[in-house]
Amino acid sequence: MAEGHERHFYDREMETIMGRLLQVGVLLASFVMLVGGILYVRAHHAAMPDYQVFKSEPQALRHVDGVVKAVATADPEAVIQLAVLLLIATPVARVVFALIAFGIERDRLYIAVSALVLAVLLFGFLRSQ
Amino acid sequence: MTLLTFTALLFVGALLAGLLGALTGLGGGVVLVPLLTLGFHVDIRYAIGVSLISVIATSSGAAAAYVREGFSSVRIGMFLEVATTMGAIVGAYLATVVHTQALAIIFGVVLLYSSFLSWQQARNPVPELKKGSPWSDKLRLSGDYPGKDGSRCKYEVENIPGGFGMMFVAGALSGLLGIGSGAVKVLAMDRIMKVPFKVSTTTSNFMIGVTAAASAGIYLHRGLISPGLAFPVMLGVLTGSLIGARYLVRAHVGVLRVVFTFVVLALGVEMIINGVTKWF
Fold first, then answer.
1. Which one of A59, A68, A90 makes the best mutation probe of the B interface by having the most chain B beta carbons within 10 Å?
2. DSSP three-state, residue B152
3. pLDDT per residue over B194-225, tens digit each?
4. How many domains does chain B have?
Protein backbone atom coordinates (compact mmCIF):
# COMPACT_ATOMS: atom_id res chain seq x y z
CA MET A 1 0.00 0.00 0.00
CA ALA A 2 2.79 2.36 0.97
CA GLU A 3 4.48 1.62 -2.32
CA GLY A 4 1.33 2.47 -4.27
CA HIS A 5 1.01 5.75 -2.41
CA GLU A 6 4.59 6.69 -3.17
CA ARG A 7 4.12 5.83 -6.82
CA HIS A 8 1.11 8.07 -6.96
CA PHE A 9 3.06 11.11 -5.78
CA TYR A 10 5.91 10.31 -8.11
CA ASP A 11 3.55 10.05 -11.10
CA ARG A 12 1.88 13.34 -10.19
CA GLU A 13 5.19 15.14 -9.97
CA MET A 14 6.29 13.61 -13.24
CA GLU A 15 3.11 14.76 -14.98
CA THR A 16 3.47 18.29 -13.62
CA ILE A 17 6.96 18.55 -15.08
CA MET A 18 5.70 17.07 -18.36
CA GLY A 19 2.93 19.64 -18.53
CA ARG A 20 5.43 22.47 -18.01
CA LEU A 21 7.81 20.96 -20.56
CA LEU A 22 5.06 20.89 -23.19
CA GLN A 23 4.00 24.44 -22.35
CA VAL A 24 7.55 25.78 -22.67
CA GLY A 25 8.01 23.96 -25.99
CA VAL A 26 4.83 25.45 -27.41
CA LEU A 27 5.68 28.95 -26.18
CA LEU A 28 9.13 28.76 -27.73
CA ALA A 29 7.75 27.42 -31.03
CA SER A 30 5.03 30.11 -31.09
CA PHE A 31 7.58 32.85 -30.55
CA VAL A 32 9.80 31.60 -33.38
CA MET A 33 6.66 31.14 -35.53
CA LEU A 34 5.60 34.74 -34.89
CA VAL A 35 9.03 36.13 -35.77
CA GLY A 36 9.15 34.01 -38.93
CA GLY A 37 5.60 35.00 -39.83
CA ILE A 38 6.26 38.72 -39.54
CA LEU A 39 9.39 38.37 -41.68
CA TYR A 40 7.41 36.27 -44.17
CA VAL A 41 4.58 38.78 -44.60
CA ARG A 42 7.09 41.64 -44.93
CA ALA A 43 9.01 39.79 -47.64
CA HIS A 44 6.05 38.52 -49.68
CA HIS A 45 3.30 41.06 -49.03
CA ALA A 46 2.55 41.70 -52.71
CA ALA A 47 2.54 38.16 -54.07
CA MET A 48 -0.31 35.73 -53.49
CA PRO A 49 0.64 32.06 -53.23
CA ASP A 50 -1.53 29.39 -54.83
CA TYR A 51 -2.42 26.56 -52.48
CA GLN A 52 -5.14 25.07 -54.70
CA VAL A 53 -2.78 22.76 -56.48
CA PHE A 54 -0.27 20.78 -54.49
CA LYS A 55 3.37 21.37 -55.27
CA SER A 56 5.89 20.13 -52.80
CA GLU A 57 7.83 22.58 -50.64
CA PRO A 58 11.48 23.12 -51.68
CA GLN A 59 13.79 20.29 -50.70
CA ALA A 60 15.80 22.51 -48.33
CA LEU A 61 12.74 23.25 -46.20
CA ARG A 62 11.89 19.61 -45.63
CA HIS A 63 14.92 18.47 -43.62
CA VAL A 64 16.47 19.47 -40.34
CA ASP A 65 19.91 20.39 -41.72
CA GLY A 66 18.41 22.27 -44.67
CA VAL A 67 16.18 24.31 -42.38
CA VAL A 68 19.03 25.11 -39.99
CA LYS A 69 21.27 26.25 -42.86
CA ALA A 70 18.52 28.45 -44.32
CA VAL A 71 17.72 29.98 -40.92
CA ALA A 72 21.31 31.23 -40.78
CA THR A 73 20.57 33.31 -43.89
CA ALA A 74 17.43 34.76 -42.20
CA ASP A 75 15.10 33.11 -44.75
CA PRO A 76 11.58 33.78 -43.31
CA GLU A 77 10.20 30.45 -44.53
CA ALA A 78 13.06 28.60 -42.87
CA VAL A 79 12.35 30.38 -39.57
CA ILE A 80 8.73 29.16 -39.77
CA GLN A 81 9.90 25.60 -40.54
CA LEU A 82 12.24 25.82 -37.54
CA ALA A 83 9.19 26.61 -35.40
CA VAL A 84 7.45 23.57 -36.93
CA LEU A 85 10.45 21.41 -36.01
CA LEU A 86 10.43 22.77 -32.44
CA LEU A 87 6.75 21.94 -32.24
CA ILE A 88 7.27 18.37 -33.45
CA ALA A 89 10.15 17.98 -30.98
CA THR A 90 7.97 19.07 -28.02
CA PRO A 91 5.93 15.84 -27.54
CA VAL A 92 9.05 13.83 -28.37
CA ALA A 93 10.87 15.58 -25.51
CA ARG A 94 8.01 14.55 -23.24
CA VAL A 95 8.55 10.88 -24.13
CA VAL A 96 12.31 11.25 -23.54
CA PHE A 97 11.55 12.77 -20.15
CA ALA A 98 9.17 9.90 -19.30
CA LEU A 99 11.87 7.40 -20.23
CA ILE A 100 14.31 9.09 -17.82
CA ALA A 101 11.71 9.37 -15.05
CA PHE A 102 10.70 5.71 -15.31
CA GLY A 103 14.42 4.90 -15.35
CA ILE A 104 14.98 6.69 -12.03
CA GLU A 105 11.96 4.86 -10.66
CA ARG A 106 13.39 1.55 -11.99
CA ASP A 107 10.03 0.68 -13.52
CA ARG A 108 11.31 -1.80 -16.12
CA LEU A 109 7.95 -2.32 -17.79
CA TYR A 110 7.43 1.39 -18.44
CA ILE A 111 11.06 1.98 -19.41
CA ALA A 112 10.39 -0.55 -22.17
CA VAL A 113 7.02 1.02 -23.07
CA SER A 114 8.43 4.56 -23.35
CA ALA A 115 11.50 3.32 -25.24
CA LEU A 116 9.16 1.64 -27.72
CA VAL A 117 7.13 4.84 -28.21
CA LEU A 118 10.35 6.80 -28.71
CA ALA A 119 11.60 4.22 -31.22
CA VAL A 120 8.36 4.51 -33.23
CA LEU A 121 8.62 8.33 -33.20
CA LEU A 122 12.23 8.26 -34.36
CA PHE A 123 11.41 5.67 -37.01
CA GLY A 124 8.70 7.96 -38.39
CA PHE A 125 11.01 10.95 -38.44
CA LEU A 126 14.21 9.35 -39.74
CA ARG A 127 12.85 6.65 -42.01
CA SER A 128 10.89 9.09 -44.17
CA GLN A 129 13.94 11.24 -45.00
CA MET B 1 -6.48 39.30 -52.43
CA THR B 2 -3.08 40.23 -51.11
CA LEU B 3 -0.99 37.93 -48.96
CA LEU B 4 -1.63 40.08 -45.91
CA THR B 5 -5.44 39.82 -46.20
CA PHE B 6 -5.22 36.10 -46.93
CA THR B 7 -3.00 35.57 -43.89
CA ALA B 8 -5.27 37.68 -41.66
CA LEU B 9 -8.39 35.78 -42.82
CA LEU B 10 -6.64 32.45 -42.21
CA PHE B 11 -5.67 33.58 -38.70
CA VAL B 12 -9.26 34.59 -37.83
CA GLY B 13 -10.72 31.40 -39.32
CA ALA B 14 -8.22 29.23 -37.44
CA LEU B 15 -8.91 31.17 -34.23
CA LEU B 16 -12.63 30.41 -34.51
CA ALA B 17 -11.92 26.74 -35.25
CA GLY B 18 -9.67 26.53 -32.17
CA LEU B 19 -12.23 28.31 -30.02
CA LEU B 20 -15.08 26.00 -31.02
CA GLY B 21 -12.87 22.96 -30.72
CA ALA B 22 -11.87 23.86 -27.16
CA LEU B 23 -15.35 24.85 -26.01
CA THR B 24 -16.89 21.60 -27.19
CA GLY B 25 -13.94 19.37 -26.40
CA LEU B 26 -13.89 18.00 -29.94
CA GLY B 27 -10.61 19.70 -30.93
CA GLY B 28 -9.90 22.20 -33.68
CA GLY B 29 -8.70 19.76 -36.34
CA VAL B 30 -12.14 18.55 -37.36
CA VAL B 31 -13.27 22.07 -38.37
CA LEU B 32 -9.90 23.29 -39.59
CA VAL B 33 -9.46 20.95 -42.58
CA PRO B 34 -12.98 21.60 -43.99
CA LEU B 35 -12.47 25.33 -43.37
CA LEU B 36 -9.21 25.34 -45.35
CA THR B 37 -10.44 23.13 -48.19
CA LEU B 38 -14.02 24.37 -48.57
CA GLY B 39 -13.51 27.96 -47.45
CA PHE B 40 -10.01 28.80 -48.66
CA HIS B 41 -9.77 26.23 -51.52
CA VAL B 42 -6.49 24.88 -50.17
CA ASP B 43 -5.42 21.43 -51.45
CA ILE B 44 -6.51 18.90 -48.82
CA ARG B 45 -2.96 17.56 -48.44
CA TYR B 46 -1.70 21.01 -47.41
CA ALA B 47 -4.71 21.37 -45.10
CA ILE B 48 -3.95 18.05 -43.40
CA GLY B 49 -0.27 18.93 -42.95
CA VAL B 50 -0.96 22.26 -41.31
CA SER B 51 -3.74 20.77 -39.19
CA LEU B 52 -1.33 18.20 -37.73
CA ILE B 53 0.97 21.01 -36.60
CA SER B 54 -1.93 22.88 -35.00
CA VAL B 55 -3.04 19.72 -33.23
CA ILE B 56 0.40 19.36 -31.60
CA ALA B 57 0.28 23.00 -30.50
CA THR B 58 -3.19 22.88 -28.93
CA SER B 59 -2.71 19.60 -27.11
CA SER B 60 0.70 20.62 -25.74
CA GLY B 61 -0.50 24.12 -24.87
CA ALA B 62 -3.38 22.74 -22.82
CA ALA B 63 -1.33 20.03 -21.11
CA ALA B 64 -0.29 22.02 -18.03
CA ALA B 65 -3.92 22.94 -17.30
CA TYR B 66 -5.02 19.32 -17.63
CA VAL B 67 -2.27 18.09 -15.30
CA ARG B 68 -3.38 20.53 -12.62
CA GLU B 69 -6.79 18.83 -12.46
CA GLY B 70 -5.06 15.61 -11.40
CA PHE B 71 -7.03 13.18 -13.53
CA SER B 72 -4.60 12.20 -16.28
CA SER B 73 -2.76 8.89 -16.10
CA VAL B 74 0.78 8.93 -17.48
CA ARG B 75 0.88 5.11 -17.59
CA ILE B 76 -2.37 4.56 -19.49
CA GLY B 77 -1.26 7.32 -21.85
CA MET B 78 2.23 5.96 -22.50
CA PHE B 79 0.98 2.37 -22.87
CA LEU B 80 -1.65 3.30 -25.45
CA GLU B 81 0.71 5.69 -27.26
CA VAL B 82 2.51 2.58 -28.53
CA ALA B 83 -0.65 1.83 -30.53
CA THR B 84 -1.47 5.41 -31.59
CA THR B 85 2.05 6.27 -32.83
CA MET B 86 2.28 3.03 -34.84
CA GLY B 87 -1.17 3.74 -36.26
CA ALA B 88 -0.14 7.31 -37.09
CA ILE B 89 2.81 6.15 -39.17
CA VAL B 90 0.63 3.65 -41.04
CA GLY B 91 -1.94 6.43 -41.60
CA ALA B 92 0.68 8.85 -42.93
CA TYR B 93 1.88 6.21 -45.42
CA LEU B 94 -1.71 5.44 -46.44
CA ALA B 95 -2.16 9.14 -47.20
CA THR B 96 0.32 8.82 -50.09
CA VAL B 97 -1.57 6.01 -51.82
CA VAL B 98 -5.12 7.27 -51.27
CA HIS B 99 -6.62 9.51 -53.99
CA THR B 100 -7.02 13.17 -52.90
CA GLN B 101 -10.77 13.15 -53.39
CA ALA B 102 -11.02 9.84 -51.55
CA LEU B 103 -9.28 11.59 -48.63
CA ALA B 104 -11.99 14.26 -48.68
CA ILE B 105 -14.70 11.59 -48.66
CA ILE B 106 -13.07 9.63 -45.80
CA PHE B 107 -12.75 12.90 -43.91
CA GLY B 108 -16.45 13.58 -44.46
CA VAL B 109 -17.40 10.14 -43.14
CA VAL B 110 -15.23 10.65 -40.04
CA LEU B 111 -16.95 14.01 -39.46
CA LEU B 112 -20.38 12.37 -39.65
CA TYR B 113 -19.24 9.68 -37.23
CA SER B 114 -17.73 12.27 -34.80
CA SER B 115 -20.98 14.20 -34.68
CA PHE B 116 -22.81 10.95 -34.00
CA LEU B 117 -20.34 10.10 -31.19
CA SER B 118 -20.62 13.53 -29.61
CA TRP B 119 -24.44 13.31 -29.71
CA GLN B 120 -24.38 9.82 -28.21
CA GLN B 121 -21.85 10.64 -25.49
CA ALA B 122 -24.02 13.48 -24.26
CA ARG B 123 -26.92 11.06 -23.87
CA ASN B 124 -25.69 7.86 -22.24
CA PRO B 125 -22.94 8.07 -19.65
CA VAL B 126 -20.99 4.85 -19.11
CA PRO B 127 -21.56 2.96 -15.85
CA GLU B 128 -18.41 2.81 -13.73
CA LEU B 129 -16.51 -0.43 -13.63
CA LYS B 130 -15.73 -1.96 -10.24
CA LYS B 131 -13.53 -4.98 -11.02
CA GLY B 132 -11.38 -4.90 -14.14
CA SER B 133 -9.17 -7.31 -16.05
CA PRO B 134 -6.37 -9.05 -14.06
CA TRP B 135 -3.97 -7.40 -16.52
CA SER B 136 -5.08 -4.00 -15.29
CA ASP B 137 -2.83 -4.33 -12.22
CA LYS B 138 -0.09 -6.33 -13.97
CA LEU B 139 0.38 -3.62 -16.58
CA ARG B 140 -0.01 -0.96 -13.84
CA LEU B 141 -2.92 0.67 -15.65
CA SER B 142 -5.10 0.78 -12.52
CA GLY B 143 -5.05 4.13 -10.78
CA ASP B 144 -7.05 6.67 -8.85
CA TYR B 145 -8.37 10.18 -9.27
CA PRO B 146 -9.54 12.94 -6.90
CA GLY B 147 -13.19 12.47 -5.97
CA LYS B 148 -15.66 15.26 -5.12
CA ASP B 149 -15.16 14.95 -1.33
CA GLY B 150 -11.35 14.99 -1.60
CA SER B 151 -10.92 11.24 -1.22
CA ARG B 152 -9.28 9.18 -3.95
CA CYS B 153 -11.49 7.08 -6.22
CA LYS B 154 -9.77 3.92 -7.41
CA TYR B 155 -10.35 2.46 -10.84
CA GLU B 156 -9.33 -0.54 -12.90
CA VAL B 157 -9.60 -1.10 -16.62
CA GLU B 158 -10.91 -3.95 -18.80
CA ASN B 159 -10.61 -5.17 -22.40
CA ILE B 160 -7.05 -3.90 -22.88
CA PRO B 161 -6.55 -5.56 -26.31
CA GLY B 162 -9.80 -3.98 -27.55
CA GLY B 163 -8.74 -0.53 -26.36
CA PHE B 164 -5.27 -0.99 -27.81
CA GLY B 165 -6.72 -1.97 -31.20
CA MET B 166 -9.07 1.00 -31.24
CA MET B 167 -6.14 3.28 -30.38
CA PHE B 168 -4.30 1.97 -33.43
CA VAL B 169 -7.31 3.00 -35.52
CA ALA B 170 -7.36 6.42 -33.82
CA GLY B 171 -3.67 6.87 -34.65
CA ALA B 172 -4.17 5.82 -38.27
CA LEU B 173 -7.02 8.32 -38.68
CA SER B 174 -4.83 11.02 -37.14
CA GLY B 175 -1.97 10.30 -39.55
CA LEU B 176 -4.29 10.02 -42.55
CA LEU B 177 -6.49 13.05 -41.92
CA GLY B 178 -4.39 15.35 -39.72
CA ILE B 179 -6.89 15.37 -36.88
CA GLY B 180 -6.27 14.68 -33.19
CA SER B 181 -9.02 12.03 -33.29
CA GLY B 182 -9.68 12.74 -29.61
CA ALA B 183 -13.22 11.43 -29.97
CA VAL B 184 -12.00 7.98 -31.03
CA LYS B 185 -9.34 7.99 -28.29
CA VAL B 186 -11.93 8.78 -25.65
CA LEU B 187 -14.16 6.09 -27.16
CA ALA B 188 -11.38 3.51 -26.80
CA MET B 189 -10.68 4.41 -23.17
CA ASP B 190 -14.10 5.37 -21.89
CA ARG B 191 -16.38 2.90 -23.75
CA ILE B 192 -14.09 -0.07 -24.38
CA MET B 193 -11.64 -0.05 -21.45
CA LYS B 194 -14.06 1.59 -19.00
CA VAL B 195 -11.55 4.21 -17.90
CA PRO B 196 -13.44 6.95 -15.97
CA PHE B 197 -14.55 9.75 -18.32
CA LYS B 198 -12.43 12.56 -16.83
CA VAL B 199 -9.35 10.33 -16.84
CA SER B 200 -10.05 9.42 -20.48
CA THR B 201 -10.44 12.99 -21.74
CA THR B 202 -7.40 14.42 -19.93
CA THR B 203 -5.16 11.45 -20.82
CA SER B 204 -6.32 11.63 -24.44
CA ASN B 205 -5.08 15.23 -24.60
CA PHE B 206 -1.52 14.07 -23.80
CA MET B 207 -1.72 11.31 -26.38
CA ILE B 208 -2.94 13.59 -29.18
CA GLY B 209 0.34 15.55 -29.32
CA VAL B 210 2.58 12.49 -29.43
CA THR B 211 0.36 10.82 -32.04
CA ALA B 212 0.40 13.90 -34.28
CA ALA B 213 4.17 14.26 -33.86
CA ALA B 214 4.64 10.69 -35.15
CA SER B 215 3.16 11.57 -38.54
CA ALA B 216 4.05 15.29 -38.71
CA GLY B 217 7.69 14.44 -39.46
CA ILE B 218 6.60 12.36 -42.46
CA TYR B 219 4.43 15.23 -43.74
CA LEU B 220 7.30 17.68 -43.31
CA HIS B 221 9.70 15.48 -45.27
CA ARG B 222 7.16 15.15 -48.06
CA GLY B 223 6.95 18.94 -48.33
CA LEU B 224 3.32 19.02 -47.17
CA ILE B 225 3.84 21.59 -44.45
CA SER B 226 3.70 24.97 -46.10
CA PRO B 227 5.22 27.88 -44.10
CA GLY B 228 2.76 30.43 -45.48
CA LEU B 229 -0.16 28.40 -44.11
CA ALA B 230 1.51 27.03 -40.99
CA PHE B 231 2.21 30.44 -39.50
CA PRO B 232 -1.30 32.01 -39.40
CA VAL B 233 -3.14 28.71 -38.87
CA MET B 234 -1.03 27.36 -36.00
CA LEU B 235 -0.99 30.67 -34.13
CA GLY B 236 -4.74 31.14 -34.79
CA VAL B 237 -5.80 27.71 -33.57
CA LEU B 238 -3.56 27.95 -30.51
CA THR B 239 -4.91 31.39 -29.54
CA GLY B 240 -8.49 30.25 -30.10
CA SER B 241 -8.08 27.11 -28.03
CA LEU B 242 -6.41 28.98 -25.15
CA ILE B 243 -9.26 31.53 -25.07
CA GLY B 244 -11.75 28.65 -25.31
CA ALA B 245 -10.17 26.76 -22.42
CA ARG B 246 -10.31 29.90 -20.27
CA TYR B 247 -14.05 30.39 -20.77
CA LEU B 248 -14.88 26.70 -20.74
CA VAL B 249 -16.42 26.89 -17.28
CA ARG B 250 -18.66 29.86 -18.00
CA ALA B 251 -20.00 28.89 -21.44
CA HIS B 252 -23.18 26.90 -21.93
CA VAL B 253 -21.40 23.80 -23.12
CA GLY B 254 -24.66 21.88 -23.59
CA VAL B 255 -26.15 24.29 -26.14
CA LEU B 256 -22.79 24.82 -27.81
CA ARG B 257 -22.28 21.11 -28.18
CA VAL B 258 -25.58 20.72 -29.99
CA VAL B 259 -24.74 23.61 -32.33
CA PHE B 260 -21.29 22.26 -32.98
CA THR B 261 -22.61 18.76 -33.62
CA PHE B 262 -24.75 20.18 -36.44
CA VAL B 263 -21.84 22.23 -37.80
CA VAL B 264 -19.68 19.10 -37.93
CA LEU B 265 -22.54 17.15 -39.52
CA ALA B 266 -23.01 19.79 -42.24
CA LEU B 267 -19.26 19.99 -42.91
CA GLY B 268 -19.14 16.20 -43.24
CA VAL B 269 -21.93 16.17 -45.83
CA GLU B 270 -20.27 19.05 -47.71
CA MET B 271 -16.86 17.31 -47.73
CA ILE B 272 -18.41 14.11 -49.14
CA ILE B 273 -20.42 15.94 -51.85
CA ASN B 274 -17.41 18.05 -52.78
CA GLY B 275 -15.15 14.98 -52.94
CA VAL B 276 -17.58 12.97 -55.06
CA THR B 277 -18.36 15.76 -57.57
CA LYS B 278 -14.70 16.64 -58.09
CA TRP B 279 -13.65 13.03 -58.45
CA PHE B 280 -16.18 11.83 -61.03
1. A90
2. strand
3. 888 888 888 888 899 999 999 999 999 998 99
4. 1
Q: Do residues A92 and A118 make contact, with C-beta atoms less than 8 angstroms apart? A: yes
| Residue A33 DSSP one-character state | H
Give A50's Cβ-side CA count (13 Å radius).
Answer: 4
Would you tell me how many other CB atoms lie within 10 Å of the CB of residue A6?
Answer: 11
Chain A partners of B18 at a C-beta cutoff of 8 Å?
A: none
Taking the Cβ of residue B124 and every Cβ of chain A, the question of whether any pair is shorter than 8 Å is answered with no
Residue B38 sits at the chain A interface (C-beta within 8 Å): no
- CB–CB of B64 and A22 under 8 A? yes
Alpha helices, H only, chain A: 2-44, 64-72, 76-105, 108-127
- Dihedral of CA atoms B12, B103, A87, B227 in degrees, nearest 10, equals -60
Q: At what angle do helices B74-97 and B197-221 cross, to 10 degrees?
A: 40
Q: How many contacts (CB atoms, under 8 Å) link A and B?
A: 207
Query: Domain range holding B149?
Result: 3-279
Strand partners, B126: none
> What does the pLDDT look like over A72-109, one tens digit per residue?
777 888 999 999 999 999 999 999 999 999 999 889 99
Give the residue from chain A lying closest to B39, CA to CA: A52
Would you call B141 helix, strand, or coil by DSSP?
Answer: coil
Q: Are A34 and B235 in contact (CB < 8 Å)?
A: yes
